Fold each of these.
Amino acid sequence: MIENILNGKEQSKIVLIKDTLEQSAWPLATCYLKSLSNRFDQIHLLCFDIPPKMFKNVLPEETLLHCTFHDFSCDPLGWLDNGHLSVKDTDILSYLQKDPILSNSYSQGQQVTVMLCSLTNLIIHRSPSYTCRLLKRLTDTHTPPFAGVTVGQVVSLVHSDLHSDQLLSHLGFVASSEITLQNSFSSDTTLNCHIRHHRTTGKILQIKEQFRLSPNFELKDVIEQKSAAVHLTTDDNQPDPTANLTFNLNLTDKEKKDRSRQVLPHIKIQNTPQEDETKSGGGGQIFYEPDDADDFDEEDPDDDLDI
């Protein structure tokens, strides 16, 4: 599943990758960038806590040609006042709409993608609602954020160990695919992940997979992790709770036979009408005697109708 999401076989507008301090999503994001460069004309990478040089040092030249880096990590709070982008003060969508690559005429009709590394700084310094609105606004098909340019996919990272489960669930509602990285104790190069994916048909898939990233940040050896069956074991040495009771809860063979022959009250009531009908030879009849207070109208209620 993770391979199909990365290469675009499984369509997904918003992909959320959740990592932790022990298991960083930066290697997987680097692998994702190489796949995105083969599918989209331009990649806009918003670096909030990962410096762009970390990607530039490992990505091949053909991938870098498709990447446009926006560095928000140098001065995220605007303390230096040196003209750098600020996470706290810069409106992300307005900034991207003024970007020369997105606003020039030669980019009309292009397919672009946006990657945010990571959402944690936006959530902390702006608000969770601002972050969720930004993700939805970037992928809005009714009122596209960029004239003539289609945002095919938005990929975002978030540090899940820094946020509450309630906030992460809100992000999960916005995302169409959610990849949760999990610690792998078997090997340093093997990664485990839990994937929740919304297909365009409305079906929701949940799957656990194990994969490996090569030194060139390529996805290798993807296998599905089957959930282990739970076997219930009985302990013969456990005490019998019915051993020391003053009454007996078990039935003898004779008592079981007597119980099976017993006719229950509701069975007897159900069988009684059938026996009466058999004896009478027909169905039942209803006799009604009107009371003195009953008021019967002798006139025809449909007399005024032309029938």
Amino acid sequence: MSRVEDNILLTTDSYKITHHMQYPPGTTTVYSYFESRGGKFPSTVFYGLQYIIKRWLVGQVVTREKIAEAKEYYNSHFRDDVFNEAGWLYILEKHGGCLPIRIKAVPEGMVVPYRNVLFTVENTDPECFWLTNFLETLMVQVWYPMTVATNSRAQKEIIARYLDETADTLDGLPFKLHDFGFRGCTSVESAGIGGSAHLVNFQGTDTIAALIYAKQYYGCPMAGYSIPAAEHSTITTWGKKGEIDAFRNMLEKFPSGLVACVSDSYDIWNACENYWGKELKEAVIERGKLGTLVVRPDSGDPKTVVVKVLNILEKSFGTSRNGKGYKLLPSYIRIIQGDGISYESLQGILEALKVAGWSADNIVFGSGGALLQRIDRDTEKCAFKCCFAEVKGKSINVYKDPITDRGKVSKKGHLTLEYDKGHFKTLQEGKGDPAKDMLVTVFENGKLVKEYSFDEVRENAELPLVKKKRAAMVTS
């Protein structure tokens, strides 16, 4: 007996098992689409469909054993024989267990305003009209990587804006938001999916599962990087009186490169002023010939704490002024704020730094639950709806229009996504120009026909500001 993770026939909602009996007689085509109907962010970063396709849809995914297993489950579950055994056997015998489905989608990493089609699904065999929406449950799960990538990119926009205002370059941007979210995820799989979505925008992570997923499903040899870093247990086991010895040990055991040391186990102000700033000052400076110490506060109000920590470190190590007039600690010492970081809090922290005269170059951020878990399908109001069908040879533009919620009005007919003069527009009812359609066939009849590298995804999702700066450097 296989696990549910191995049997695609078991990866749907219960009620869909009966839907093959509910379509009008003579139905031969069901064509559906996926979109963000609105939500927290005005645009979405489309990412994660390739994972779903490779994980679940490619090759022979239907076998006689899986059909028998599903029939046993569903007959017991419904206490009735409502399972579409004949339909699945047809797929096995006629298509070799490959799914007769076509999926068209926008390029992964593309940033698309909400209320636009992101992908479509349709059956390629008229006998398998029921299959399109059977797959809805699985296909809609693209909401998660898509929303993580969107949330991450929105924070990248905030950081980039403050770097542009208070720093000389954007060079540090790829490492400004570090993923601390592995332990807060609901599973290793969700950590891999969500963590890789964050890496579309940044290159800093402690979520190793994300690296594996980016490599396995997007061919990226190494999508993210980390550094040696202390946690509270490795500091507090030295005892309160031994905290300074724990700090010294970090400098000695990691004599070069970046190293991060949590410093708030007892008294962050004392740690910064007396331990780092006095007793270990010369060791920090000497180590600075080969690397950088990153001091980590991890409690309190971030807006207040980060400014005070910087002010204390300034008294010991001094500062310089960058080209925009903002203060910068020596290159051998920086701080990381890894507590309380979210889309909602980030701007307030960076604004506090700016008002206090500090460049955003002095700080990096770490985020966990707010990065990978404080979202759901309604964050971007993701939905999958049928919009076209053929019944007895007749084309039908299918839609819903609930009188109680006009926000749930769905699109009609065949769809194309077109881009003109800087704007996306979804054309309905077959009125679009196929030559201008940005939806690309990515899967057809069991085969992945278009594959995106992680580099391509990252480039598609890159901020216009970064692209502009990059182009300016090339031309200069």
